[in-house]
Design goal:
Elements lengths: L3 H8 L3 H8 L7 H14 L5 H8 L4 E6 L6 H15 L3 E6 L4 H12 L5 E4 L8 H6 L4 E4 L9 E5 L1 H14 L5 E6 L4 H16 L9 E4 L5 H12 L7 E4 L2 H13 L9 E6 L12 E4 L2 H16 L6 E4 L2 E3 L11
Parallel strand pairs: 1-2, 1-3, 3-4, 4-5, 5-11, 6-7, 6-8, 8-9, 9-10
Antiparallel strand pairs: 10-12
Length: 334
Amino acid sequence: MSTISEVAKEAGVSVATVSRVINQNASVTPETQKRVNAAIAKLNYHPNVWGRSLRRQESRVLLIFVPNITNPYYANIISGIEDTARRNHYNTMVCVTNVDKERAKEYFDLLRCGSADGAILLDTTKNDKSVPRLAKNFPVVQCCEYCTDENISHVSIDNLEAAKQVVQYLVSLGHRRIGFAGAVNDFISTEQRETGYKKALEEAGIEFDSRYVAYADEDYNFLSGIRAVKELLCLKDRPSAIFCISDMIALGAIRAAGEMDLRVPEDLTIVGFDDVAYATMFKPMLTTVSQPGYSLGKTSCNMLIKQMGGAAPNHMFLEHKIILRDSSAANAVE
């Protein structure tokens, strides 16, 4: 195995210059960088990244906090984070918290003991007091979910506006009895999507009816989606359309409709949220709100790396869009 001294000799420079090239120090001229990189390639030299990290007091590890791994929504986000981390010579560690504060605290200890350099949080609840405390001492970026503390970076979409647009779309199809399938948790996206639903009804001149609201479990799982939507479909004057705050709930809604001999979209329009891969795997394919999952992950990782380099906290909202597929149609019920 080649050494850094052999690379320096081959390139005709000092060991310190080779080190500066490896560490991407701007003080090295382009011509010298070219010679050093050629020597590295010729000798197949591999820097001791672990030793260099120890000298810098870096771990080169980023933590990714997720509430669960059952919801496929998180897959694209994690891919965006991991690809961006690798391009910047960081490893990642996925920390599944189940929104358990004690479990999250154990992962936070990895930051405190120097085993990780920063964290991307996908599990932040809206009133979480531990995150502001953590962010005072360590680089932290919130992705998708975030608390209201403005001093902590976050990347998300405008969930309230997205929900309003869904309801406006349903109203444009002639639906007036519009149901809502939410979830029982403390995520800000959950609150904003329900708020957007109510605001859109108000703007359309439709009176809010609490009977048309049902709740799935906190993790938006498929079975709880079936249960919640069946509550709505058992109403005598059932909804002609249902807006579900996640695709997993929406897929459960389609199953619930089928079990009650209702056709989607002929008898019932269903709209989801997230645009997970499953949304197009079954018939009818799901009309949904598409979130840019990979870009959310990529953006949050870049933001974290900049923050570790001294950048100030930042806030960013990425674009969403409504994807029209088979599960929505003009109202034929009312």
